[in-house]
Amino acid sequence: MSSSHLGTRYDTVPIPPLPENTTWYDAGAVRLGIEYRHLTDDIVDAAFAARPDEAAVVDAARPALLDDEGWSLHVVDGATDEEWLRFDMFDDGPHYHYIVPGQYNLSIDIDTNALGEPIPWALGAVRDRVATMLRYAGNEDLAAKVDPDAVAAAIDQVDAHVRAGIPDTVATA
């Protein structure tokens, strides 16, 4: 773990989306996944059980007791399914990630005082800035293929999904 001028770099990637909780929307060169997540210490421990080096990185950074939930918006390469951006719009600790698949992620807290509520801010960031953010994450090729109209249409679908409410059942492991 190291600090950056933007956030904290972790030499691991975030816990992948759970397929049973994630609904995917095609957006041209990228796909957007919306997932309701409930993260606890047990869930994080299970996710990193087979990756002890990465688990140590995560353990050093997490709060004494992790229990948070909310929507996660995943931005993946439509051709490879590699995740490059994630927006965790959690109740207690909203943040987002620039991800370099298989290597590391940069986690940045969402300052709700400056940016407002996490969900509208994140949807707007993807709608208006996804290509710029993909470039910052290091994927110039994918950024060049972004179709703003396709992203906007997918964001409208994600927004409708979130407005429909939290699913009755959310898998936790």
- Topology, number of strands: 8
% residues in beta strands? 25-35%
User: How much helical structure, as a percent, in the residues?
Assistant: 25-40%
Major sheet summary line: 8 strands, antiparallel
Describe this structure in words.
The structure is a single chain. Strands 1-2-8-7-6-5-4-3 form an eight-stranded antiparallel sheet. It has 173 residues and is an alpha+beta fold. The longest helix has 20 residues, at 118-137. Helix 4 (118-137) packs antiparallel against helix 6. The chain has helices spanning 41-47, 52-61, 112-115, 118-137, 140-145, 148-163; strands at residues 2-3, 8-10, 22-27, 30-40, 67-77, 83-90, 95-100, 104-109. The model has no long low-confidence stretch (mean pLDDT 87). The chain contains six helices and eight strands; from the N terminus they run E-E-E-E-H-H-E-E-E-E-H-H-H-H. Helices cover 36% and strands 31% of the residues.
Q: Outline of this structure?
A:
The protein has 173 residues and is an alpha+beta fold. 36% of the residues lie in helices and 31% in strands.
Secondary-structure blueprint of this entry?
Blueprint: E1 2-3, E2 8-10, E3 22-27, E4 30-40, H1 41-47, H2 52-61, E5 67-77, E6 83-90, E7 95-100, E8 104-109, H3 112-115, H4 118-137, H5 140-145, H6 148-163
Antiparallel strand pairs: 1-2, 2-8, 3-4, 4-5, 5-6, 6-7, 7-8
What structural keywords apply?
173 residues, 36% helix, globular, alpha+beta, eight-stranded antiparallel sheet, single chain, 6 helices
